[in-house]
Amino acid sequence: MGKYLKTALLLTVLMVAIAVILSAVYLVTKQPIAKSDLEAKLTAIKAVLTDPNTGKLLIDENEIPKTLSQLKAKIWKSDPSGILYSDQKVKGYVLSPAYLFKSKNGKPVYVLLGYGIGFGGRVVTVAAFEKKKDGFYENAIRVIDYSNETPGLGAKINEPQVRQRFYSIPNSGFENGVKVNKDANLYPLPPDYKDKLNYFKSKGVVVTSDVMTGATITPRAVVSTLNAMYAFLEKEAR
């Protein structure tokens, strides 16, 4: 009996020690991780608020948030659940909070975070939409979480040559939902497809099969996210 009691006490002490160590590690790493996440988010927001064609900011430089408090001041809508909008049809989700800025020409610019389901789980995207007369113009994106996507395939989603395929999608491209070219029956690609990338975007087709050979699920997660974001803006910002 004493032997069992001694073993139980040793296990209890061991478990308490492990709990103390884990708590200490959490406390030590919590602040650096939060700081790193904030910096990544602020960097992504500035990137999507930059015109990909001119390299100039859509908004005044002094309106770019540089701290958590400045970012909170730009919150437009939030929800304690963490989800502002979900579209089960396209399996896209808009995360809380959403941010609102004003462009240099006085137009609203919305910055949204959202996710779709990739090969290995959530693929989180940040995107900026400028409100125009005919609807919302998607300016640019950054993919900030794709850690579970396949290296060399889906994990290429945030490479510049891939990312730019999702830039500058006009309102007309969202009318029937944005699709990757394989889902839009644009495969194999025509010989002159590179000259028509913007035309395809205007029709809601994002060409990715040439820059992400063999990967469809990950870019599909991004277009699902963009479609959910657009539907959310149509509902909340008209």
Question: Care to describe what's here?
Answer:
With 238 residues, the protein is of the alpha+beta class. It has one domain (2-236). The protein has six helices and eight strands. The protein has helices spanning 2-48, 68-72, 160-163, 171-174, 197-202, 217-236, and strands at residues 75-77, 83-87, 92-102, 108-117, 122-132, 135-145, 179-180, 205-206. Strands 1, 2, 3, 4, 5 and 6 form a six-stranded antiparallel beta sheet that branches. The chain has a two-stranded parallel sheet with strand order 7-8. A hairpin with a 4-residue loop joins strand 2 (83-87) and strand 3 (92-102). It is globular. The N and C termini lie far apart (74 Å). The mean pLDDT is 91.
How are helices and strands ordered from N to C? HHEEEEEEHHEHEH
Q: What's the total helix number? A: 6
Distance between the termini: 74 Å
Low-confidence stretches: none
Shape: globular
Q: Number of folding domains?
A: 1
Give me some keywords for this one:
single chain; 238 residues; alpha+beta; six-stranded antiparallel β-sheet; two-stranded parallel ribbon; 6 helices; 36% helix; 23% strand; globular
Show the helix and strand layout.
Elements: H1 2-48, H2 68-72, E1 75-77, E2 83-87, E3 92-102, E4 108-117, E5 122-132, E6 135-145, H3 160-163, H4 171-174, E7 179-180, H5 197-202, E8 205-206, H6 217-236
Parallel strand pairs: 7-8
Antiparallel strand pairs: 1-3, 2-3, 3-4, 4-5, 5-6
